[in-house]
Amino acid sequence: MKKSFGAKTMIYPAPVWCIGTYDNEEKPNIMTIAWGGICCSNPPCVTISIRKSRYTYKNIMENNAYTVNVPSEKYVKEADYFGIVSGSDVNKLEKTGLTPVKSELVHAPYVREFPMNLECKVVHFYDLGAHTHFVGEIMDVKVDDNLLDADGKPDIEMIRPLIYSPEANVYSGVGTIIGKAFSVGKMF
């Protein structure tokens, strides 16, 4: 038997992504979200959903760009802080000592210390109710060189991204690899 929880924003895992934007005075801002995911492979696109009341919403609407910054486990405090306070009140990057870097392909900053950064230009946005759903075409993905495997691909166990459990309000790490995709299921 299964327990019904009704219509809720509950799914495991949810990402912990820090969204980078500039305001109209070119001040870098970072906001943590959990509502997001890949939505298209060609062109490569990622979605994020943000409330209209958020400072980041205004920045994205003005610049049609954002970065998706993937914090590692060692930055859990900073990622949490980025979701607690508003960039309209405090410079979050300055407060945490993290470094904003101007993206090469879009008008948005990324976080130097975070192991993975995506530069995205807005190609669509949709009002869904409480949130606006932004579709960003991924213009570039940057990953720290020392976090690549022997084949030169990002290694999730070295990146150590955070995941979020919405109902429990806790952050977790990624577990060990348990199988090779598009391979372990071939036995059927």
| The level-1 CATH class | Mainly Beta
Give the beta-strand count: 12
Strand content: 35-45%
Q: Quickly count the helices.
A: 4
- Rounded average pLDDT: 96
Proportion of residues in helical segments: 10-25%
Q: Assign the CATH superfamily.
A: Electron Transport, Fmn-binding Protein, Chain A
> What's the overall geometry?
globular
What integer value in Å does the Rg equal?
17 Å
Number of domains: 1
* CATH fold naming: Pnp Oxidase, Chain A
Description:
The structure is a single chain. The protein has about 190 residues and is mainly β. It has a single domain (about 15-185), classed as Pnp Oxidase, Chain A, CATH 2.30.110.10. The protein has helices at about 55-65, 75-85, 90-95, 155-160, and strands at about 15, 15-20, 30-35, 35-40, 45-50, 65-70, 100, 110, 115-125, 130-145, 160-165, 170-175. The chain has a 7-stranded antiparallel sheet with strand order 3-2-6-9-10-5-4. The mean pLDDT is about 95.
